[in-house]
Design a protein that fits this description.
Layout: E1 2-7, H1 12-23, E2 28-34, H2 46-50, E3 57-63, H3 68-75, E4 80-86, H4 91-100, E5 104-109, H5 120-123, E6 128-132, H6 150-157, E7 162-166, H7 174-179, E8 184-187, H8 189-192, H9 197-207
Parallel strand pairs: 1-2, 1-8, 2-3, 3-4, 4-5, 5-6, 6-7, 7-8
Length: 212
Amino acid sequence: MIIVPAILTDDRGELERQVKICEQFTDYAQIDIMDGHFVHNRSVGWQDLSSIETTLSYEIHLMVTHPADEVDHFSRISGVKRIYCHFETNWQAAAEKIKAKGLEFGLALNPETEIPHLDHGLLNQIDSIMLMTVNPGAQGQNFIPHVLPKARHAKSLHSGIIVAVDGGVRLDNIEQVVRAGVEQVCVGAAIMAADDPAAEYRKFLEASGQLP
């Protein structure tokens, strides 16, 4: 299991501060992008992220109504490896652009969205499926456990697809996530809002069996 710290902010200075904190304990982070339409809140944008020099690699979680419009911007940012778009949007157009840029494509599903039936061609475009275990748009929400049974279903679609969860994961519920067969966990407030994010990150690694 991979633990990925997730950064969500609407302030460019806070974005840089959290990026620099992440550099101290990981080489990979998720950046949450919100447009104020697909979800109620708005976050930093590609201009803010592109102006920050860092050693981190990123995955971008696009909580936006028109993800295809954002792909060109984010694909030019050094360190971006994967871009998630939501199934509840026009994700297929975005997926084609993302794969054409040589990046990994991730498909995110809201808590109440069932695992879709996809043809072979569409499945081959998907590198990761991320199951939202909170309603997207804000950090610090309560974990929704009934999403977890979808993890094994998602993995059954294609053996090469990485199954991730995002939202509300804490040290007191990560064991449930491990048992569900999840391969990647995105953790926002539980790490980034801690007094010592590096120490908290290590606790998550220990709790998920990544450290002795």
